[in-house]
Amino acid sequence: MPLYLVGAGISARYLTLRAIQLIGSADVVYIDTYTSIAPGIDEELVTRLNPRARIVKASRELLEQGSRRIVEEAQRMNVVVLVPGDPLHATTHIALLLEARRAGVDAEVVPGVSGLQAVVDATGLQVYRFGRPVTLVYPEEGFKPYSTIDVVRNNRRAGLHTMVLLDLRLDEGRAMTVPEAVELLLSLEEELAHEEGWEPELRDAVIVGVARAGLEDGVCIAGRPEEVASASYPPPPHTLVVTAPRLHPMEAEALKTLCGCKSC
């Protein structure tokens, strides 16, 4: 029997026909509850599509430490792991796919509309001008995410935009917002610049705050950091984009038109 890693998209409205078919024929559906926030991807939806399926709300711990059990179930029944966005944008799911293949279990990946794709679409920035994406996590005792600044700086030196994914700790009820991210990013850059002896540059950069990309209440705000940080946003998921030092004229127009940029 197969294991299906199914991308649910950024909300229930973005479920593909293939996803609906597989949920409807599944014996067990694991709903990923930690990767991202996807409105409508929940037990009620799965029950409507397949009243007979056993539903399991799957934390990161379950998907990682319980992966062997999931693979063993897929040897005798149809198992769906339903993941917000695209199923292979998290390493946990790649590891599960590989474990299934090693065990001789048929494993199929069903792509979904990802949050990354939705953010690019919301901004109008050119996709081939994005460099390496990076996650900005909350600081903890004895740790600050200075590596995020390194990625942003390297991308900007190469003339590329940076998609900054914001920390989601859904099991703790925490989800980083655009204003929080802007404040943290600027403070990290100032600290690192002071320590290493270079001039901060992000206070003069054009950045983009995106909330709930692709959803009806989605918001995109572009401008200088203080403008983006002071704007109002709907609840998470939120994402930040730090643009390249130079925008293509079409990108500048897109940010003005789609995200209200006054500094582009």
TrEMBL record:
Tetrapyrrole methylase domain residues: 3-188
Annotated keywords: Methyltransferase, S-adenosyl-L-methionine, Transferase
Reaction catalysis annotation: 2-[(3S)-amino-3-carboxypropyl]-L-histidyl-[translation elongation factor 2] + 3 S-adenosyl-L-methionine = diphthine-[translation elongation factor 2] + 3 S-adenosyl-L-homocysteine + 3 H(+)
UniProt xrefs under InterPro entries: 4pyrrol_Mease (IPR000878), 4pyrrol_Methylase_sf (IPR035996), 4pyrrole_Mease_sub1 (IPR014777), 4pyrrole_Mease_sub2 (IPR014776), Dphthn_synthase (IPR004551)
Annotated residues for binding of S-adenosyl-L-methionine: I10, D86, S114, G115, L166, A213, H238
Biological process according to GO: methylation; protein histidyl modification to diphthamide
Enzyme Commission number, as recorded: 2.1.1.98
Complex formation: Homodimer.
Family: Belongs to the diphthine synthase family.
Protein name in UniProt: Diphthine synthase
Species the sequence originates in: Hyperthermus butylicus (strain DSM 5456 / JCM 9403 / PLM1-5)
